Amino acid sequence: MLKGSFELIGDKSISHRAIMFSSISKGKNKISNFLMGQDCLSTVNCFRKMGVDIEINNNEVYVSGNGLKGLKSFEDKLFLDVGNSGTAIRLMMGILAGQDFKTTIIGDESIGKRPMKRVTDPLKKMGAIISGRDDANLIPITVEGGNLTHIDYHMPVSSAQVKSSLILASLYGDNTSFIHEKMRSRNHTEIMLKSFGADIEVNNLEIKINPVEELFNKDIYVPGDISSAAFIMVGALISENSEVLIKNVGLNDTRVGIIEVIKKMNGNIEIIDEEEICGEKVGNILVKYSPHLIGTTIDKELIPKLIDEIPIIAVLATRAEGDTIIKDASELKIKESNRIKSVVNNLNLIGAKAIELEDGMIIKGKTHLQGGKIQTFNDHRIAMSFSIANLISNNKVILDSDKCIDISFPGYFNLLKKLSK
């Protein structure tokens, strides 16, 4: 049983962007409720290495920006280590494409397996010189920036990381750029850059970007991360007599797919005290135990709005009557692990009935989980999802490792312990 209320930690996606965009803007600003997870601290370290003055005081960060073209290389061969962060590497390549120095980006074993051509190919078309393993698909990747041209690009995949990288590169272009999305993806980049003075216009699935001379810093408040809230939300939905109030949750329209799915599955969830802060919707979420969950289908219309929440939705589905079908989610294969395979195999190990699909999975409900030892593959979302499965298992669900959780949710187990009754 989970009972109580808590303030949610800062959003990972927005925290990354706050550091990056502040670093290439003029002036000093304060970033409040910054996520002190390993991924976001990797971004801080990268920009410090390029000459940006960044001070950290508890969960507040102060950035003295260097301006659009003010980043510096203090070494003949500049190496930037992004650790485990796909957001850091993909967005940063868009910025580095506009700088006048050469940089090599490295990372951990997991990031070394994740594909980068979806970013490096269009950046090459804009004039950046990029090299790396497998034709600049795998790290280490070297970016030599300089004079970029504009681009009119139709994205082959729905990806906020790719879109954001190209928007950033377009700030350094020689003329107006257009980026066309297949489906709407999270839009934190457009919101924040516009508040910094970028000339961005969004018309349905088309984004128009004009180059600018400079961006100008302003203070940023980072709302709570709904992707992190999702684990506690599901824990409350499936654990008897639970009731949890989660405060300060980011409710951006492109991120609330998890709430839509919970409502479709007959979950007891309510949004209260909604407001807008720094261009982002924020509110409190009240979640209660829901004994009459029903299965649902999740496909391409919803996938971009909840891609990171699918592992925990799969755990939720084990407590629903009927089948839950997840499809059009092949992007899961290129996350920190192959999350289709990771989720299905681990669910079956602990007594659920899950079937792997080429682009998703089927979870058959309602099942009683028996527990057992699972493999996290050092994937923070797999680890947290199966720690929630432990709440309803007849025997313990044992994680082979939980250190990876600090990537996105430091203090997670302390919070879970505090809420557990």
TrEMBL record:
Location, primary (coarse class): cytoplasm
Name of the protein: 3-phosphoshikimate 1-carboxyvinyltransferase
Domain Enolpyruvate transferase: 2-414
Keywords: Amino-acid biosynthesis, Aromatic amino acid biosynthesis, Cytoplasm, Transferase
Keyword set includes Ribonucleoprotein: no
UniProt catalytic activity: 3-phosphoshikimate + phosphoenolpyruvate = 5-O-(1-carboxyvinyl)-3-phosphoshikimate + phosphate
This protein's pathway: Metabolic intermediate biosynthesis; chorismate biosynthesis; chorismate from D-erythrose 4-phosphate and phosphoenolpyruvate: step 6/7
Subunit structure: Monomer.
SUPFAM superfamilies assigned to the protein according to its UniProt record, in alphabetical order: EPT/RTPC-like (SSF55205)
Pfam families on file: EPSP_synthase (PF00275)
Keyword Iron among UniProt keywords: no
Active site per the UniProt annotation: D308
Record-linked Gene3D superfamilies: Enolpyruvate transferase domain (3.65.10.10)
The EC number(s) this enzyme carries: 2.5.1.19
GO MF term (any one): 3-phosphoshikimate 1-carboxyvinyltransferase activity
Job of this protein: Catalyzes the transfer of the enolpyruvyl moiety of phosphoenolpyruvate (PEP) to the 5-hydroxyl of shikimate-3-phosphate (S3P) to produce enolpyruvyl shikimate-3-phosphate and inorganic phosphate.
Residues where 3-phosphoshikimate binds: K12, S13, R17, S159, Q161, D308, K335
Compartment list: Cytoplasm
Domain of life: Bacteria
Record: residues binding phosphoenolpyruvate: K12, G86, R114, Q161, R339, R381
Homology family: Belongs to the EPSP synthase family.
